[in-house]
Amino acid sequence: MSGAALGLEIVFVFFLALFLLHRYGDFKKQHRLVIVATLLAWYLCFLIVFILPLDVSTTIYNRCKLAVNSSPAEGNGSYVTLAPSKQKCFKPWSYIPDGIMPIFWRVVYWTSQFLTWILLPFMQSYARSGGFSITGKIKTALIENAIYYGTYLLIFGAFLIYVAVNPNFNLQWNQLQTIGIAAANTWGLFLLVLLLGYGLVEIPRSHWNGAKRGYLLMKTYFKAAKLMTEKADAEENLEDIMEEVRKVSESIKYNHPLRKCVDTILKKCPTEYQERMGRNMDDYEDFDERQNSYPSEKSLAKLHKQVIYSVQRHRRTQVQWQILLEQAFYLEDVAKNESSATRQFVHTFHSQEPENKIIQYFYTPTVEWYWECLLRPWFYRVLAVVLATFSVIVVWSECTFFSTKPVLSLFAVFIQLAEKTYNYIYIEMACFLTIFFLSICVYSTVFRIRVFNYYYLASHHQTDAYSLLFSGMLFCRLTPPLCLNFLGLTHMDATISHKNTQPTAYTSIMGSMRVLSFIADGFYIYYPMLVVILCIATYFSLGTRCLNLLGFQQFMGDSEMTSDLIDEGKELIRREKRKRQRQEEGENRRREWKERYGNRDDSTRSRAVHTDQKESSFSETNANRPLSKYTRSNGRTERDRIELLQDAEPLDFNADSVNDDPLESDSGR
Questions:
Q1: Main-chain phi, psi angles of 450, to 5 degrees
Q2: Mean pLDDT, residues 366-379 taken together
Q3: Which residue, among 489, 479, 473, 485, has the nearest Cα to 523 in the 3D structure?
Q4: Of 388, 383, 386, 490, whose CA–CA distance to 435 is shortest?
Q5: Interatomic CA distance for residues 227 and 497, integer angstroms
Q6: What is its main location (predicted)?
Q7: pTM for the full model?
Q8: SS3 call for 456
């Protein structure tokens, strides 16, 4: 099994990242480089989280092996184990051979840092650029990132000059590398504590509120009112942008040098607008530079950028509105079925997407009723209690992990107890649950936060390229300090435990933080204590209340604005529900009419076809018969008709003789 666990987790994490990216991104419409870069960033961050427990168990085994093969001694520079064992060390099932983990961590860490500080910011500007060529987009991206890159180069250059001039500093390349890593981790830890403090409270509370049907329904109504406002705003913005595109398309004709740019813009417009502009466009008129003023290529690039943004926002609000309607209808169905005597779940509307037959076989209406109306609320309550317990343990450990005698961090206590018996499965499970919970609290906050329309991760393939790349940047910056914080909570970091023990492979690539003692002994230890203040602020919803006072509509039960928006959303849902019912009733009537009169219409249609065939055959038969019997009478009738036409005198048309009064025309004749 040597290295097999590492290979299995590498494959599993790849498919996990691919699944999440498929849920939020759009593989068909977004650029392949954006998909690949985001997938690589997510994959590397998730990989660090899943592989780190294996590194911990391997390090504990190496400490045990070192303690057995050598006599531990204090103060002579040799490694001293936490609990020397007189028995033979057992190799863990997930043991990774020596030399693999340092190389693995070095590749993963520096690749993620290259992505977050260099490649992804450049690709963000490239994706947002409205240029019409690759060269133009690259030029725009370089200009936008000049200040971004220049700031870092200026700070780093000033630091190098200060180190070179000051004789008290004698830093080598490894120490400079450690300082750079410490600076990146410090920035990441600053943001990590903010996100962690929100997630530790909001995740258990959201699951507890998930058991309240009335709360979820009211919040859905609130979201419907807000989303309808955003949807109307997106439609209005799209109309304004399409009007500008129409004017530009009419002014720039087919033989204008910038016509290719206009055609590129038109391809990004919705189909109905393209058809409307195509009907109203006259490409046979030449352009005249002396008479008309035409937009420049720079203004067209700006318009192109606005078109991409407005179309993406309009499509996203349309999809989110349909999803929210389905959610509201389902919650209303749950509220109705709670008092059902038959204990069978009845849906108001049938699902528009075809369901799996296996799911239909096992997930019957009776099973659905028991789950939705009886079991699910209790399951969410129990899960909320478990998550709240984990949150309390994390907050306690964050405030006490610097204490080594006695050991107050509960995670460190759990790991040290398992280390005494070398129960590697327990060690890996405890480490995995701990770092997985921390990752959920941090990463879920990244998925939930929304910075206006600048950054927003929307599910069902509605996230734009800029937000995907920005999320990759955040993950790559948050994961290394998250792992270091986890190692500090479990006292696997020598900087925290203050013991000369063998470090983990992940810690070894970070270097010794003793180079910057004020960061290692100060910021890394005392700053995570702020998570207590942030948890208290999140529990009392101080951030939500501040945003509500500033005019940003937030869901608050004791707010008059919230009540008004709930009533508005309830009316919107009721209106859409009546509309959906009328559509289904019309479809049912057409289906019943077709089933009832479909056979009769088919028989009538077959009789009509048979009659036509008989008439055509009869006419063909009459045409083939001799016409001598009818020749004389037909000839006489034709001669009488010719004589009447010859007796009629032709009348000359005179405009003056035309009168409106019919009596005058009769008298004149």
A1: -145, 120
A2: 91
A3: 485
A4: 490
A5: 51
A6: membrane
A7: 0.81
A8: strand
- Nearest alpha-carbon partner for 127 in 305, 310, 316, 317: 305
The tokens for 165 are 């001039």
Helix (H) or strand (E) holding 450: strand 450-451
Predicted local distance difference test score (pLDDT) of residue 554? 83
In order, the DSSP letters of 163-204 are: HHH-TT----HHHHHHHHHHHHHHHHHHHHHHHHHHHHHHHH
DSSP 604-625: HHHHHHHHHHHHHHHHHHHHHS
- Smallest Cα–Cα separation from 398: which of 200, 185, 184? 200
What average pLDDT does range 641-664 have in this prediction? Answer: 42
pLDDT above 50 (res 667): no
Exposure letters 570-588 (e unless 16+ CB within 10 A, then b): bebbeebbeeeeeeeeeee
**Cα separation of 336 and 221, whole Å?**
17
Q: What is the pLDDT of residues 379-425, one digit of tens each?
A: 999 999 999 999 999 999 999 988 888 889 999 999 989 888 888 89
- Distance, CA of 95 to CA of 324 (rounded, Å): 47
Alpha helical stretches, state H, 347-375: 357-362, 365-370
Question: What are the boundaries of each domain within the chain?
Answer: 2-68+89-200+357-538
Highest mean pLDDT among 259-263, 360-364, 390-394: 390-394
Q: Provide the sign of the torsion angle of the four alpha carbons 212, 213, 218, 223, taken in this order.
A: positive
- Taking the alpha carbons of 330, 335, 338, 343 in that order, is the dihedral positive or negative? negative
| Residues 6+ positions from 203 with CB-CB distance below 8 Å | 387, 391, 440, 441, 444
Which burial class, exposed, middle or buried, applies to 58 when counting CB atoms under 10 A from its CB (0-12, 13-18, 19+)?
buried
Chain length of the chain: 669
DSSP 79-121: ---SS--SSPPPPPTT---TTHHHHHHHHHHHHHHHIIIIIHH
The pLDDT tens digits of the residues spanning 415-451 come to 989 888 888 899 999 999 999 999 999 999 999 888 8
What does the angle CA 69 – CA 74 – CA 76 come to, to the nearest 5 degrees? 85
More confident residue, 653 or 29: 29
> Do residues 61 and 92 lie in contact, with contact meaning Cβ atoms separated by under 8 Å?
yes
Q: Which amino acid is at 352?
A: Q
DSSP 341: S
- Distances in whole angstroms, Cα of residue 1 to Cα of each of 4, 473, 647: 5, 35, 116
- Amino acid, single-letter form, for residue 320: Q
395 or 271, higher pLDDT: 395
Q: How many CB atoms lie within 10 A of CB 79?
A: 16
Question: Nearest to residue 160, comparing CAs of 177, 144, 145?
Answer: 177
Q: Measure the CA–CA gap between 564 and 556, rounded to whole angstroms.
A: 11
Structure tokens that stand for 170 in this block: 């004698």
Phi, psi of 443 (to 5 degrees): -70, -35
What pLDDT is recorded for position 604? 53
